[in-house]
Protein backbone atom coordinates (compact mmCIF):
# COMPACT_ATOMS: atom_id res chain seq x y z
CA UNK A 1 0.00 0.00 0.00
CA UNK A 2 1.63 3.24 -1.16
CA UNK A 3 0.64 6.72 -0.04
CA UNK A 4 0.13 9.27 -2.80
CA UNK A 5 -0.30 13.00 -2.35
CA UNK A 6 -3.29 14.20 -4.34
CA UNK A 7 -4.72 16.86 -2.05
CA UNK A 8 -7.54 16.42 0.44
CA UNK A 9 -8.50 13.78 1.28
CA UNK A 10 -5.21 11.92 1.87
CA UNK A 11 -5.04 9.11 -0.67
CA UNK A 12 -3.64 5.59 -0.50
CA UNK A 13 -3.18 3.58 -3.71
CA UNK A 14 -4.30 0.00 -3.01
CA UNK A 15 -4.05 -1.48 -6.51
CA UNK A 16 -2.75 -0.13 -9.80
CA UNK A 17 -4.61 -2.55 -12.05
CA UNK A 18 -7.51 -2.39 -11.70
CA UNK A 19 -7.28 1.01 -10.00
CA UNK A 20 -8.37 0.85 -6.38
CA UNK A 21 -7.69 3.71 -3.95
CA UNK A 22 -8.76 4.89 -0.51
CA UNK A 23 -9.09 8.52 0.55
CA UNK A 24 -8.97 9.38 4.26
CA UNK A 25 -10.50 12.50 5.76
CA UNK A 26 -13.14 13.46 3.22
CA UNK A 27 -14.97 15.89 5.53
CA UNK A 28 -13.03 16.01 8.79
CA UNK A 29 -14.21 14.34 11.97
CA UNK A 30 -16.72 16.98 13.12
CA UNK A 31 -18.67 17.19 9.86
CA UNK A 32 -18.46 13.44 9.27
CA UNK A 33 -20.01 12.84 12.70
CA UNK A 34 -22.80 15.31 11.91
CA UNK A 35 -23.52 13.66 8.56
CA UNK A 36 -23.65 10.20 10.12
CA UNK A 37 -26.23 11.42 12.64
CA UNK A 38 -28.29 13.18 9.96
CA UNK A 39 -28.43 10.15 7.70
CA UNK A 40 -29.27 7.81 10.55
CA UNK A 41 -32.09 9.97 11.93
CA UNK A 42 -33.54 11.74 8.88
CA UNK A 43 -33.71 9.08 6.18
CA UNK A 44 -36.54 6.60 5.76
CA UNK A 45 -34.53 3.38 5.88
CA UNK A 46 -36.04 0.38 4.12
CA UNK A 47 -35.53 -3.36 4.28
CA UNK A 48 -36.60 -4.71 0.90
CA UNK A 49 -36.68 -8.33 -0.15
CA UNK A 50 -34.56 -9.91 -2.85
CA UNK A 51 -35.19 -13.07 -4.82
CA UNK A 52 -32.57 -15.77 -4.31
CA UNK A 53 -33.03 -19.20 -5.86
CA UNK A 54 -36.70 -18.46 -6.41
CA UNK A 55 -37.43 -17.41 -2.82
CA UNK A 56 -37.96 -13.99 -1.23
CA UNK A 57 -35.58 -12.94 1.55
CA UNK A 58 -35.24 -9.73 3.57
CA UNK A 59 -31.81 -8.24 3.03
CA UNK A 60 -29.51 -8.38 6.13
CA UNK A 61 -29.22 -4.58 6.42
CA UNK A 62 -31.32 -1.48 5.69
CA UNK A 63 -30.95 0.55 2.55
CA UNK A 64 -32.20 3.36 0.32
CA UNK A 65 -31.81 3.83 -3.43
CA UNK A 66 -31.57 7.59 -4.07
CA UNK A 67 -30.97 9.71 -7.13
CA UNK A 68 -32.30 11.53 -10.15
CA UNK A 69 -35.85 10.61 -11.23
CA UNK A 70 -34.70 8.56 -14.23
CA UNK A 71 -32.03 6.62 -12.31
CA UNK A 72 -34.03 3.41 -11.91
CA UNK A 73 -31.95 0.35 -11.08
CA UNK A 74 -32.46 -3.42 -11.12
CA UNK A 75 -30.50 -6.13 -9.36
CA UNK A 76 -31.22 -9.59 -7.91
CA UNK A 77 -34.50 -9.62 -9.80
CA UNK A 78 -35.89 -6.48 -8.15
CA UNK A 79 -36.44 -2.99 -9.59
CA UNK A 80 -35.68 0.08 -7.47
CA UNK A 81 -37.11 3.55 -8.09
CA UNK A 82 -34.92 6.31 -6.65
CA UNK A 83 -35.91 8.38 -3.64
CA UNK A 84 -35.28 12.11 -4.25
CA UNK A 85 -31.94 13.50 -3.11
CA UNK A 86 -31.66 14.42 0.56
CA UNK A 87 -29.64 17.65 1.15
CA UNK A 88 -27.01 15.85 3.25
CA UNK A 89 -26.55 13.19 0.57
CA UNK A 90 -26.23 15.88 -2.10
CA UNK A 91 -23.51 17.50 0.01
CA UNK A 92 -21.67 14.18 0.16
CA UNK A 93 -22.07 13.63 -3.58
CA UNK A 94 -20.58 17.04 -4.38
CA UNK A 95 -17.67 16.39 -2.01
CA UNK A 96 -16.97 13.06 -3.71
CA UNK A 97 -17.09 14.61 -7.17
CA UNK A 98 -14.72 17.40 -6.08
CA UNK A 99 -12.30 14.87 -4.58
CA UNK A 100 -12.29 12.81 -7.77
CA UNK A 101 -11.84 15.91 -9.92
CA UNK A 102 -8.73 16.75 -7.89
CA UNK A 103 -7.26 13.31 -8.69
CA UNK A 104 -7.88 13.64 -12.43
CA UNK A 105 -10.83 11.24 -12.36
CA UNK A 106 -13.81 13.49 -13.11
CA UNK A 107 -17.16 11.83 -12.44
CA UNK A 108 -20.79 12.88 -12.38
CA UNK A 109 -23.06 10.66 -10.30
CA UNK A 110 -26.83 10.54 -10.69
CA UNK A 111 -27.57 7.92 -8.02
CA UNK A 112 -26.38 6.34 -4.79
CA UNK A 113 -27.11 3.17 -2.85
CA UNK A 114 -27.10 3.84 0.89
CA UNK A 115 -26.68 0.87 3.22
CA UNK A 116 -27.12 1.02 6.99
CA UNK A 117 -25.42 -1.74 8.97
CA UNK A 118 -26.75 -1.71 12.55
CA UNK A 119 -23.84 -3.82 13.84
CA UNK A 120 -21.34 -6.42 12.72
CA UNK A 121 -24.04 -8.99 12.02
CA UNK A 122 -25.53 -6.89 9.21
CA UNK A 123 -23.76 -7.73 5.98
CA UNK A 124 -23.64 -7.84 2.19
CA UNK A 125 -22.70 -10.97 0.24
CA UNK A 126 -20.26 -11.45 -2.61
CA UNK A 127 -21.07 -9.44 -5.71
CA UNK A 128 -19.75 -7.04 -8.30
CA UNK A 129 -21.52 -3.88 -9.47
CA UNK A 130 -21.71 -4.81 -13.14
CA UNK A 131 -25.38 -4.30 -14.00
CA UNK A 132 -26.10 -3.24 -17.57
CA UNK A 133 -27.43 0.16 -16.42
CA UNK A 134 -23.95 1.09 -15.13
CA UNK A 135 -22.30 0.85 -18.54
CA UNK A 136 -18.97 -0.78 -19.32
CA UNK A 137 -16.30 -0.67 -16.59
CA UNK A 138 -18.01 1.87 -14.29
CA UNK A 139 -16.27 3.97 -11.68
CA UNK A 140 -17.85 3.37 -8.27
CA UNK A 141 -17.15 5.66 -5.29
CA UNK A 142 -18.08 4.52 -1.77
CA UNK A 143 -18.16 6.77 1.30
CA UNK A 144 -17.99 5.14 4.75
CA UNK A 145 -19.36 6.75 7.91
CA UNK A 146 -19.41 5.15 11.34
CA UNK A 147 -17.80 1.97 12.62
CA UNK A 148 -14.75 0.84 10.66
CA UNK A 149 -15.21 -2.49 8.89
CA UNK A 150 -13.23 -4.44 6.29
CA UNK A 151 -14.50 -4.84 2.75
CA UNK A 152 -13.34 -8.21 1.47
CA UNK A 153 -12.14 -8.50 -2.15
CA UNK A 154 -11.46 -11.61 -4.23
CA UNK A 155 -10.27 -12.00 -7.81
CA UNK A 156 -12.79 -13.34 -10.30
CA UNK A 157 -10.15 -15.65 -11.80
CA UNK A 158 -8.58 -16.43 -8.36
CA UNK A 159 -5.18 -15.23 -9.63
CA UNK A 160 -4.16 -14.17 -6.12
CA UNK A 161 -5.34 -14.40 -2.54
CA UNK A 162 -8.39 -12.49 -1.34
CA UNK A 163 -7.68 -9.38 0.70
CA UNK A 164 -9.34 -6.91 3.08
CA UNK A 165 -9.64 -3.15 2.71
CA UNK A 166 -10.49 -1.56 6.05
CA UNK A 167 -12.91 1.35 5.60
CA UNK A 168 -12.66 3.85 8.46
CA UNK A 169 -15.09 6.62 9.34
CA UNK A 170 -14.92 9.55 6.90
CA UNK A 171 -13.24 7.60 4.10
CA UNK A 172 -13.80 7.32 0.35
CA UNK A 173 -13.08 4.12 -1.57
CA UNK A 174 -12.75 4.54 -5.33
CA UNK A 175 -13.17 1.44 -7.49
CA UNK A 176 -11.97 2.49 -10.93
CA UNK A 177 -12.55 1.10 -14.41
CA UNK A 178 -12.15 -2.66 -14.52
CA UNK A 179 -12.58 -3.29 -10.80
CA UNK A 180 -16.09 -4.73 -11.16
CA UNK A 181 -14.96 -6.94 -14.04
CA UNK A 182 -11.92 -8.34 -12.25
CA UNK A 183 -12.90 -8.38 -8.57
CA UNK A 184 -15.85 -9.27 -6.36
CA UNK A 185 -16.40 -7.69 -2.95
CA UNK A 186 -18.41 -8.43 0.19
CA UNK A 187 -19.01 -7.00 3.64
CA UNK A 188 -18.83 -10.15 5.72
CA UNK A 189 -20.23 -10.47 9.26
CA UNK A 190 -17.88 -9.69 12.13
CA UNK A 191 -18.34 -9.41 15.88
CA UNK A 192 -18.03 -5.62 15.87
CA UNK A 193 -20.31 -3.23 17.76
CA UNK A 194 -21.49 0.03 16.30
CA UNK A 195 -23.42 1.26 13.30
CA UNK A 196 -22.00 1.97 9.85
CA UNK A 197 -23.53 3.75 6.85
CA UNK A 198 -22.07 3.42 3.37
CA UNK A 199 -22.98 5.51 0.33
CA UNK A 200 -22.01 3.94 -2.99
CA UNK A 201 -22.21 6.52 -5.76
CA UNK A 202 -22.62 5.53 -9.38
CA UNK A 203 -23.97 6.69 -12.71
CA UNK A 204 -26.97 4.86 -14.10
CA UNK A 205 -27.70 5.04 -17.81
CA UNK A 206 -31.46 4.81 -18.49
CA UNK A 207 -32.50 1.93 -20.71
From TrEMBL:
Keywords: Dioxygenase, Oxidoreductase
Statement: the UniProt record of this protein carries the keyword Kinase: no
Cited Pfam families: 2OG-FeII_Oxy_2
Keyword Oxidoreductase: yes
PROSITE patterns in alphabetical order: FE2OG_OXY (PS51471)
InterPro entries in the record: AlkB-like, AlkB-like_sf, ALKBH3, Oxoglu/Fe-dep_dioxygenase_dom
Molecular function in Gene Ontology: dioxygenase activity
Gene Ontology BP terms: DNA alkylation repair
Domain Fe2OG dioxygenase: 108-205
Protein name per its UniProtKB record: DNA-N1-methyladenine dioxygenase
